[in-house]
UniProtKB/TrEMBL annotation:
Signal peptide coordinates: none
Residues annotated as domain HTH cro/C1-type: 33-81
Protein's organism: Streptomyces spirodelae
Entry-linked SUPFAM superfamilies: lambda repressor-like DNA-binding domains
InterPro entries to which the protein is assigned, alphabetical: Cro/C1-type_HTH, Lambda_DNA-bd_dom_sf, MLTR_LBD
Protein name, entry field: Helix-turn-helix domain-containing protein
Region (Disordered): 17-37, 269-292
Length: 292
């Protein structure tokens, strides 16, 4: 670990970011060039003290998950992310199927603070959520192992279905199986998608039925309805933005302006992170060994 290089790199990347780049107000009294340390720390999901010690060459060696969080928070490119890992004493993660979110997509996310939105990869693993998405869906970034995939949780953990009306479940099952087959087709044999399919075929008869239909391009469930313990049913429309270079998808949930559903979405900040249903805090049946 090269503490001096790490500290200098973090400082220069932080100072190169402007508040507008990450959806923050500049304010009339800002004298700091670029972002403040506390802002960079918040964007990276860590304490200001921890981040500051890294810039002051006195912090501990950051772990790969912490480095990945810093790379997202500072909107680093893939080349910059790899450099960050190396000077911190770690091998960079593989670029194929990477969870790294591009700076352009991160800039879009930074402007969606008042909207439920999240980024997922080809296996429906949630890489990033806005606070309102966590309030609507639960914290989907907390899972580990195969349960990181929405597809896996859907077919193995009944709690994962509680946020959707029961009458919509068959359409979700059909869509998820179809999307996983498309991911398997793109990734091929020996891929993480193939391993996920093999595990689901072993444990879920329902998945096996949908998989045997060999359906490609099943329609997305629209409108998408959610059940909320405090706000009741919320009907949304899901806008989709694809990042083909990273094989990632930005999902943005909106409601018809002026509707009761729109008002419920506006109430989500007062409700806070979802604490019922799939995000009730009990361990998911799919946690455990991760997909390679």
């Amino acid at each position: 670990m090269d503490r001096a290089q790490l500290a200098d790199f973090l400082r220069t990347r932080r100072e190169a970011l402007q508040p507008e780049d990450v959806g923050l107000p500049r304010g009339p009294r800002r004298r700091t060039r670029g972002l403040r340390r506390e802002e960079a720390a918040a964007l990276s999901g860590m304490s200001t003290d921890y981040y500051s010690r890294l810039e002051q060459q006195r912090g501990p060696q950051p772990s790969p998950p912490m480095l990945a969080a810093i790379a997202r928070g500072l909107h680093l490119s893939l080349a910059e992310r790899d450099h960050l890992f190396r000077i911190a004493g770690h091998n960079p993660p593989p670029r194929s199927g990477s969870d790294h979110i591009s700076p352009g997509l991160m800039r879009i996310i930074g402007r969606l603070g008042d909207t439920p939105a999240q980024v997922i990869n080809e296996l429906a693993e949630t890489l990033w959520q806005t606070p309102l998405a966590a309030a609507l869906l639960g914290d989907e970034t907390r899972y580990t192992g195969a349960a990181r995939s929405t597809y896996y949780r859907w077919f193995t953990d009944p709690a994962a279905r509680l946020i959707f009306p029961e009458e919509d479940h068959p359409r979700h099952s059909r869509f998820f199986a179809s999307e996983l087959r498309a991911a398997y087709s793109r990734q091929g044999t020996g891929s993480r998608a193939e391993l996920l399919v093999e595990r689901l075929l072993e444990v879920s008869e329902e998945f096996a039925r949908y998989w045997s239909a060999h359906e490609i391009g099943a329609p997305r469930v629209e409108p998408k309805r959610f059940r909320h313990s405090e706000l009741g049913e919320i009907e949304t429309h899901c806008q989709v933005l694809l990042d083909p270079d990273q094989a990632q998808t930005l999902l943005v949930y909106t409601a018809t302006p002026g509707s009761a559903d729109d008002e419920k979405l506006r109430l989500l900040p007062a409700v806070g992170p979802r604490s019922t249903g799939a995000d009730a805090g009990r361990p998911s049946s799919g946690t455990g060994q991760d997909l390679p």
